[in-house]
Citramalate synthase
Amino acid sequence: MTPTESSPMPEPMAAPPQFHVYDTTLRDGAQQEGLRLTVTDKLRIAALLDELGVGFIEGGWPGANPNDTAFFAAAARGELTLQHAELVAFGATRRVGGVAADDPLVAALRDSGAGTACLVAKSHVGHVERALRTTLAENLAMITDTVQHLRAEGMRVFLDCEHFFDGYREDPRYALEVVRTAAEAGAEVVVLCDTNGGMLPSWMGDVVSAAGAVGVDLGVHCHNDTGCAVANTLAAVEAGAMHVQGTVNGYGERTGNADLVSVVANVELKLGWPVLPPGALTEATRIAQAVAAITNVSGSARAPYVGTSSFAHKAGLHASAIRVDPNLYQHIDPARVGNDMRMLISDMAGRANIQIKGEELGFDLSDRELAARVTDQVKAREADGYSYEAADASFELLLRSELGQLEEYFSVLHWRVHSHSAAGAPSETEATVKLRARGDVQIFVGEGNGPVDALDHALRRALTPAFPAVDRYELTDYRVRILEGPVGEKGGHGTDAIVRVLIDTSDGTRTWTTVGVGSNIIEASWEALSDAYWYGLLHDVATPGPAGRPAGTDDDVLTVAASR
Amino acid sequence: MTPTESSPMPEPMAAPPQFHVYDTTLRDGAQQEGLRLTVTDKLRIAALLDELGVGFIEGGWPGANPNDTAFFAAAARGELTLQHAELVAFGATRRVGGVAADDPLVAALRDSGAGTACLVAKSHVGHVERALRTTLAENLAMITDTVQHLRAEGMRVFLDCEHFFDGYREDPRYALEVVRTAAEAGAEVVVLCDTNGGMLPSWMGDVVSAAGAVGVDLGVHCHNDTGCAVANTLAAVEAGAMHVQGTVNGYGERTGNADLVSVVANVELKLGWPVLPPGALTEATRIAQAVAAITNVSGSARAPYVGTSSFAHKAGLHASAIRVDPNLYQHIDPARVGNDMRMLISDMAGRANIQIKGEELGFDLSDRELAARVTDQVKAREADGYSYEAADASFELLLRSELGQLEEYFSVLHWRVHSHSAAGAPSETEATVKLRARGDVQIFVGEGNGPVDALDHALRRALTPAFPAVDRYELTDYRVRILEGPVGEKGGHGTDAIVRVLIDTSDGTRTWTTVGVGSNIIEASWEALSDAYWYGLLHDVATPGPAGRPAGTDDDVLTVAASR
């Protein structure tokens, strides 16, 4: 931490010898209202969590639902390769009155292919007697049997004590007995869960210390019902917990789980303990936003550290001081979490970002005037709802247009879509596309499941005579986001709202993303779709070096100006 | 607190003899990105804050901008009548080298009509020297002069020490000197501000205690940059602060201010100190949501205490236990903050969730076989991509269909959509809907910004002759999610993927949500759209008691079977 940063740091605590960063986005995070993850979503999120450098990824509850079972099967088949993280299967202790070795859900843990199991067990007398409806002794026997069985099968075992803090208030002796039983059976970490989220930070210390006296490594799992999930997690760490559970973007049931990125950023940047691989924290903002793109449940713009507003300044008072020294008005350098300071007068990234981005794509934007012109273009289009952060291909088309290095492989004369349904029958959709390519006018019709599919088929057929390469292009993802009106105004919120469409296209080797915006979802999709073909052709047909001369020489290949 | 509630409460602390709940939504909250308040907005929000029973409402900075000046003028003219709260004018200490009595901004405070002024002053050596560019002595003189002047004019004065915690780390002697200077000049409360929001709860206590040694009443003002604003505020209270500043919905610059409702609910329900008028806290959810409606910046669905998801349950494991005792899975009775427990319907849900949800809607699902049949229906449709978690209205239509209590107000004969664009021109879209309603066949065309807008216009026109009430229905939100193929399979990922559409509709009084699914986005939107009208008519035209007989008697009103 540089001396000008403004975070006071009293006597630093010593870091524990080992520290577990344990993510449960794929299991407890998926309890979030409105969030549903497919197997592919889970695989993509797991890869991002691994990039973030978490130690453990709780992938779900195999055997409890087909989706989670399929995720572990896919991971076991090699569809997930982890560099840092260990995959964990979540499950429960065996059934009341059963035997762990014969329990089908315990078998699902064993068969999951994960090296570590995290078992949930009751530790609250009222829950044992009234929800589980068994005896206190049987609950302990279930823990012993299940932990010992999985350990004997060669798995690492963690144990989540559900409702631990509430249980400790009701009957501290029994709650601690659960911790001791799990430890003696071979659980490596016993995790104290504030399942209902009712704790305050000042109440955590004594309870965690009491559990620590058992002599096992402790973890903590908090929910945000008092608005203190992050603080409660830190209080447990300060009282000796060495394992923190949480989720990206604080996803979770009710008020959510502890936001794992906030917890880890506080541990690294405030307590000064490096708990992620070196440099990993600087990817936190990108990763949190990428996870939100997959779940389609946005993180808060005001999320600590990684929110889009988290280092944005509006107050005039602040703005003038920031000119003197940015650190006077920010608690850390936002680059440490991969975020940026933003002044809200200029709503978007500055010239420096654009220059860096251009360099990434191989363009020289060191000319200040050129960089400023491109920045102005990007700002104007982002104000209209475009987003180039994910849409690299559309950004390159825009950049080449400004540089005069964009060729028009085809020009569209018109497109039409017709969709209809008679009562009871499935809908039918057809599209017509008329365009000129390599001098010839083509008109083709395509059918599809919906308007964009039909347009894709028609466009592909119309381009094929001139550019047979388009046959390899496949649309691999299609995402739609409804935008509201300009900030501060009451914009369209219903079916007349502005729509942003992102399309991913693959040629089998590489994938690119394009963006379209409009109040008509078909028109916005068409823009992203035609950009997708255009970008593909740019790299297939003519591949001029970014600074070199165009390779296309056909008379009908025109430099574009007005249409972009 | 009833004994079954799950919040542990260790040795209760004694409440201070007086406690200030101080709201700064109208001043610091208005620094939130995207939030802009008119004078009318401010008057309405102030009235709501007064209903919440806060002690102080910081209305803005008179003299610093015309909007805030106008707000104080309107309040002084009697456009704002406060029952509980005192209006506070925010301002700064006089200019460097000036005299408080002659300072125009100090005059604006005097002339504001507010009985209390809250002055911001620097307390951080680096900020005095580098941002304010004056001497440490002059900064103290500015405080003394301004506080004494306003006190002599008969105002109560509070003083905000900007960057106090960072300043204390840099030079504790000077930071405490500022507190002492303000107290000696007559400030009633000195507020310690974590302006950059970089503090952790465990760092608060020592600093607040050191300031407390000066012997003046202390307040605290926190920002959420570490995700600890609420916890930091509580830590200060536990160290002796008797005045808490915050904003409704946690509005504020960057990551926001401390959420005042969370702070107050924790103080009342967890620390056990009554700090609002009796019963006022039960209005908290309504008031927080009403403020969000005025600002047009939603609070988080996951906001502690007052969020729409804050007492929503999804896991089947939880749902069965909730039937035993709701307090097993909630940290307080949600009625204490005016919120409700909600069961979410999802593929993770079991029969228990469905039964509770049915009861919420007024249906008797105690028949196990019926409940099982509805559960199977929900699971089958969710497997196809439907999601009833948010779509209460579609869930009720499904439930009524299973119960034989669903009437068909209209039957659609066909719909058609046509969208086209010629190169360079904006797209045009028209839709045709042909339906039968109350025995008459109607066919109408509608134009729109896109296919759904056009269909909405055509459907509305076709229904109006039979049901003029539809004129009041407004589509207020439209959300699209691209789904992948069935669980575990590689489904369509591109434009042939399955699409889920959610539509919110309002009749001006209440809002309902419907869902549609399909590979054609137009068809999926159509399903959600026609469900939306259907549900509206169900409650407008015929309102049979849930268990009663249908009220509709037209011959052409048929019970629906196959179409659902």
